[in-house]
Amino acid sequence: MYGGTAWGMNVAEAGLPLITASIAMLALLFILGSRQYRSKERLLRMCAATVGVASLVLAAIAMFGDRAFPITVYIEAEANAYAPMQIWSLATGTARLPLTALGLTILVVVWLLPTINCHEQARSRAMKGGLVLLVVGFTMIFAPQLFPDAMSVPISSSNGMVFSSPPWTHSVKGMASSVVFVGAASLLLSVVFNYFPPRKPRQLEGPEEPDAFRI
Predict the structure, then answer these.
(1) Could you report how far apart the first and last alpha carbons of the chain are, in Å?
(2) Which of 162, 169, 190, 207 lies in disulfide reach of 127, CB 3.0 to 4.6 Å?
(3) Is residue 87, in this structure, part of any structural domain at all?
(4) Could you tell me where the DSSP H helices lie in the chain?
(5) Antiparallel, parallel or unpaired: β 74-78 and 81-84
């Protein structure tokens, strides 16, 4: 009998940081590209927003995967007996918060990009986005109290097996911290735009290089 740790556990632990960093770098490339190539600015912003939405979709799968695919959460331990699959919980349980925070952060940045050179409009957008996220976040925190009828444990069946999963209100409540965090950061950014006026453009002695990188 082998008493070591299954290699799948190590892969699951290392996979989340790699996926999160990859999504962040891909979105950053699109965002910086939209600032550099003005003719394709709208297209590149849409690509960045798509990356943010994809991150939120992955977070939703991690959140509700045990409800949508209950057969994947259990493994056959004995004849007609099933036990929870630890690797699924390890891989998806830790992915919910960072993927949600990353996806919302990307969308907030894309939302602010068109007004980044006009601090008054950027401040207004940052404040509106932050308030919306805070309202959504606190609604998620109090979801068990706001939706008491959803507190019953749902029962589902697949391939002749019967499964139970936690109420969706508990799953949503676990995601609230990421939403509140991004909302508070957006509000803080609106304060920064309010008290730090934009810099005046620097006067160049010679003609500006056409390929100069702009951020």
Answers:
(1) 58
(2) 190
(3) yes
(4) 7-36, 41-68, 86-93, 96-112, 119-141, 143-146, 168-195
(5) antiparallel
Q: Is 206 a domain residue? A: no
Reported as type and span, the H/E element at residue 206 is: none
Q: Is the C-alpha dihedral spanning 40, 42, 47, 48 positive or negative?
A: positive
Question: What pLDDT, in 10s, does the model give residues 66-104?
Answer: 666 665 555 544 444 444 555 555 566 677 888 899 999
Q: How many domains does the chain have?
A: 1
Q: Which of 5, 103, 21, 106 is nearest to 62 (CA)?
A: 103
Task: Return the SS3 of 78.
Answer: strand
Contact between 99 and 177 under an 8 Å Cβ cutoff? The reply is no
**In the numeric block, which tokens belong to residue 166?**
């936690």
Q: Which domain holds residue 188?
A: 8-195
Residue with tokens 């936690």: 166
Q: 22 lies in a domain?
A: yes
Residue 144: pLDDT band (50, 70, 90) is confident
- Return all residues near 180 (Cβ < 8 A) that are at least 6 apart: 133, 134, 137, 138, 141
Q: Could you tell me how many residues make up the chain? A: 215
User: Are 165 and 67 spatial neighbours (Cβ–Cβ below 8 Å)?
Assistant: yes
Distance CA 121, CA 134 (A): 20
